[in-house]
Amino acid sequence: MVTDNLRFEWLQSLLLLIILGALLLLLLRQTMELSRMRSYTGKITKVFTIEACGDKIEKREFREGDYVGLVTGECGEGLQKRIIGIYSEEVQESKSG
What is the SS3 string spanning the chain? Predict the structure, then answer.
């Protein structure tokens, strides 16, 4: 009975090595994913709204509730100020130091 257990001791070591190898591969994959995500952190996008009133066009930061066609006020002479566009720009993050 004791000799039967000795025959399979190497299987325990092999199983342990397989599990360790799998864990190392998962750790490596996770590390690569995190480093890939870090490359995106330098890119910041800001959303802007374009408003028009007659021939005058203004750009401002997007506010929640903005949509194309929304009347945002009056700008004189009975003209209405409307949102005519919404877009985003990529802004470079300034690093101090």
Answer: CHHHHHHCHHHHHHHHHHHHHHHHHHHHHHHHHHHHHHCCCCEEEEEEEEEEECCEEEEEECCCCCCCCCEEEECCCCCEEEEEEEEEEEEECCCCC
Judge if pTM exceeds 0.90: no
Q: Which two tokens stand for residue 61?
A: 């930061």
Overall size of the chain counted in residues: 97
Distance between terminal CA atoms of the chain? 70
Average pLDDT over residues 17-32: 96
